[in-house]
Specification:
Elements: E1 2-6, H1 10-22, E2 26-30, H2 33-40, E3 47-51, H3 59-67, E4 76-80, H4 85-93, E5 98-101, H5 106-120, E6 130-132, E7 135-138, E8 143-146, E9 149-152, H6 155-166, E10 172-173, H7 174-182, H8 190-203, E11 212-217, E12 221-226
Helix pairs in contact: 6-7, 6-8
Length: 239
């Protein structure tokens, strides 16, 4: 899981990053809202933790900016020293998914992060088959059944298909998919992912008459769309 930390206090970022990375998260920290928003246009995050009080652009303005971008925003945890009930209401009404007051006990913070992600994101089962329309994904055999016809895939192709189906409608960056499927591989080139995407699209016949289509989000990555809500491929480069 990948999380973005946005706080103008570098010390707070470092402490939070250490806590989350020890729990298995991958973190990217930012002290300037514009730097974070630039990164968000290129990367996919599973969670954003944002401070409220920052110079130039506060946390509520950042949340509003996220909601105005083409990529679907991940869960947002507002972390702030503002503790009045009216502040909590304002933060949640602005679009934050949860709210925690500084200084937070590390165990409580970690528990709230895990609870938020469980509540708002789909968790892939380790062994149970999952069904998406005509598609049934069976992790026990790395096999996808398309309308009851078995399609045998390589392990990497199957992992890629699972990530796409678990995030239907969500644009996933190339960096995010490379990390999820291949882990920390600095030598791995983007065309490796592109080749796997092409094979998955072909093997699974991801086309409108089967209920899903896999589109390129130019300059960013890929998005699997349900045909009922499908939209034309978008570009994040011009945002």
């Amino acid at each position: 899981m990948q999380v973005a930390l946005l706080d103008d206090d570098e010390t707070h970022n470092a402490l939070t990053r250490g806590l989350l990375e020890a729990a298995g998260w991958t973190c990217a920290s930012f002290t300037r809202p514009q730097d974070f928003l630039t990164a968000f246009r290129r990367q996919t995050f599973d969670l954003v933790m944002v401070d409220w009080n920052m110079p130039g652009m506060d946390g509520l303005q950042v949340i509003a900016a996220l909601n105005g971008l083409p990529a679907t925003p991940p869960p947002v945890l507002l972390v702030t020293s503002r503790s009045q009930e009216s502040d909590v209401v304002a933060g949640l009404n602005a679009g934050a998914d949860d709210y925690i007051v500084k200084p937070a006990d590390p165990a409580v913070l970690l528990a709230r992060v895990n609870a938020l992600v469980r509540r708002l994101t789909r968790t892939l089962s380790t062994d149970a088959a999952e069904t998406f329309g005509l598609y049934r994904l069976d992790p026990a055999s790395d096999t996808v059944h398309v309308d009851d016809e078995a399609v045998v895939m390589t392990a990497k192709e199957f992992q890629l298909a699972r990530q796409l189906f678990a995030n239907v409608g969500r644009a996933l960056s190339r960096e995010y998919l490379l990390h999820k499927i291949w882990g920390q591989r600095p030598d791995l080139e983007s065309r490796t992912l592109d080749a796997h995407v092409s094979r998955v699209r072909s093997k699974l016949s991801l086309r409108p008459d089967n209920g899903f289509r896999l589109v390129t989000v130019y300059g960013f990555g890929y998005r699997l769309e349900s045909c009922e809500t499908a939209a034309a491929p978008m570009s994040l480069q011009d945002q």
